[in-house]
Amino acid sequence: MFEIKKFIYFRKRLSTVFNCRFESYTIYKNINYSSLILGNNIELNDNVHFVTCEKVNIGNDVLIASKVYISNLSHGEFRGEKQDPPLTKPNLRKQNTNPIIIKDEVWID
């Protein structure tokens, strides 16, 4: 694996076109794993955007079409008893994250 940034890794043969964007953060302290892992033979078309905060694992031989946005975090919860007060500023709301797994040989359009 090759380290791109602190929390982003890719394996062999990553192909991108124009304006692809990778953002990877962590809300956990002293984290020692990447939150975005791209497998072998990944092809990303124009304007693909990843925003990750918890593990996002993209399998091998995956094709992602243009203008696809993949994110596993949000600012605030607006259902049930966990709801943040409506007037809370977005950056002050508790971040919600969930892992994403995209298996091998997938085409996302």
The H-and-E topology, N to C, reads as: EEEEEEEEEEEEEE
Describe the oligomeric state of these chains in a short phrase. Answer: single chain
Stretches with pLDDT under 50, minimum 5 residues: none
User: What proportion strand?
Assistant: 35-45%
Backbone structural class: mainly beta
Number of strands: 14
Number of domains: 1
Distance between the termini: 26 Å
Mean pLDDT over the residues: 81
Tell me the strand order in the biggest sheet: 1-2-5-8-13
* Large-scale geometry: elongated
SS element count, helices: 0
How is the main sheet built? Answer: 5 strands, mixed
Supply Rg: 15 Å
Helix content: under 10%
Question: Topology, pairings included?
Answer:
Elements: E1 2-5, E2 8-10, E3 14-16, E4 21-24, E5 36-38, E6 42-44, E7 49-52, E8 56-58, E9 63-64, E10 69-71, E11 73-75, E12 95-97, E13 100-102, E14 107-108
Parallel strand pairs: 2-5, 3-6, 4-7, 5-8, 6-9, 7-10, 8-13, 9-14
Antiparallel strand pairs: 1-2, 11-12
Could you name the key traits of this structure?
single chain, 109 residues, mainly beta, 5-stranded mixed sheet, 4-stranded parallel sheet, 0% helix, 39% strand, elongated
